[in-house]
């Protein structure tokens, strides 16, 4: 499995692995793909710097990238305190009452309840600054095009920019803004995702832009990677599939337990995670938000600020039935815990088998 992106980025295989774990990202890079570390969980620039320094030392000199969360338009954020004042008390009461009903215990005394601030535009900009101090080979933005000045900053450092798109029109705007690689993320994908399925979306975007396109959403086998290439993609972008790898150390065992037990229909697309539509594992937490008495989710970044402490409490609760985790419909294929190297080897083997099978149809 090799395309022009391999030579451009110095990787062996056009398999891009997004993950919030530096351990998984480094293992993906060592296995010949491009590990892409999600930065949103880092509130402190020093913590991100430490994680990237660790990756510098544990990727065997192989390339890696980072993923940020930054809207193209700079929002008027104010301060964190000002934002918190915009959250209605009724929403706060609902979250606390729901956690109580679900039996989610409070955080241990003295533990930081600040939650994740990486959704804030100012924090995302600091992530870019820190990342460019390391030998990264790609910066991707989970919310589409970063602001043009950020794209120019990254290009000045000799680093290409990738952006996720859920429509062909979005992809075209990304390229007009200077984006180098478009990630065509279908409806099946975990996290922020649009309304068009991968099988339809990938060829639409490939035909609409002149830059390399990565296929994302519903890819969890070499057969599916081969299908993506047949649709015109230059590589695949995989996120969910790495959540049940042995190196995944962020979170706890209850998360992997919930993922291993889930089927492909056990996800839901909802705005309760960040305020924008995102696909999550269906649990008692997501079901509570679908109740008639539940309030409407707030816009980004207010929704994330609202539920950030709740997510910390859920993660500490060790209860698979309330896990709050972005994951795609490919979760139905995630049935065992395996090392990243074994997963990668399986993908490559299945890809070769699929291509060989197709050549026999000529």
UniProtKB/TrEMBL annotation:
Keyword Electron transport recorded: no
Gene3D superfamilies named among the record's database cross-references: Aldolase class I (3.20.20.70)
Keyword tags: Flavoprotein, FMN, Monooxygenase, Oxidoreductase
Protein name: Monooxygenase
Family annotation (InterPro entries): Aldolase_TIM, NMO
Pfam families (UniProt xref): NMO
Molecular function via GO: nitronate monooxygenase activity
Species this chain originates from: Lentzea aerocolonigenes
């Amino acid at each position: 499995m090799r395309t022009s992106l391999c030579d451009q980025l110095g990787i062996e295989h056009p398999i891009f692995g997004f993950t919030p774990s530096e351990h998984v990202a480094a293992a993906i890079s060592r296995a010949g793909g491009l590990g892409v570390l999600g930065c949103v969980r880092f509130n402190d620039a020093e913590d991100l710097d430490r994680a990237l320094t660790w990756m510098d030392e544990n990727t065997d000199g192989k390339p890696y990238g980072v993923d940020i969360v930054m809207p193209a338009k700079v929002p008027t954020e104010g301060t964190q305190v000002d934002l918190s004042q915009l959250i209605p008390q009724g929403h706060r009461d609902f979250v606390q009452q729901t956690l109580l009903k679900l039996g989610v215990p409070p955080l241990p005394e003295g533990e930081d309840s600040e939650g994740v601030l990486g959704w804030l535009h100012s924090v995302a900009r600091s992530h870019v600054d820190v990342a460019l101090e390391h030998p990264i080979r790609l910066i991707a933005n989970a919310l589409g095009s970063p602001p043009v000045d950020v794209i120019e900053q990254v290009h000045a450092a000799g680093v290409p920019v990738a952006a996720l798109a859920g429509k062909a029109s979005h992809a075209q705007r990304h390229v007009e803004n200077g984006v180098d690689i478009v990630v065509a993320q279908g409806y099946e994908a975990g996290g922020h995702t649009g309304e068009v399925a991968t099988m339809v979306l990938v060829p639409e975007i490939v035909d609409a832009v002149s830059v390399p396109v990565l296929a994302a959403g519903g890819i969890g086998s070499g057969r599916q990677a081969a299908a993506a290439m047949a649709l015109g993609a230059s590589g695949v972008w995989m996120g969910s599939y790495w959540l049940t790898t042995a190196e995944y150390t962020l979170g706890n065992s209850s998360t992997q337990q919930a993922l291993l037990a889930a089927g492909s229909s056990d996800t839901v697309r909802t705005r309760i995670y960040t305020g924008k539509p995102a696909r999550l594992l269906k649990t008692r937490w997501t079901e509570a938000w679908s109740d008639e008495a539940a309030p409407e989710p707030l816009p980004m970044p207010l929704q994330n600020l609202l539920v950030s402490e709740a997510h910390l409490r859920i993660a500490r609760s060790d209860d698979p039935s309330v896990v709050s985790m972005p994951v795609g419909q490919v979760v139905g294929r995630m049935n065992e815990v395996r090392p990243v190297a074994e997963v990668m080897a399986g993908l490559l083997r299945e890809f070769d088998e699929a291509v060989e099978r197709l050549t026999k149809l000529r």
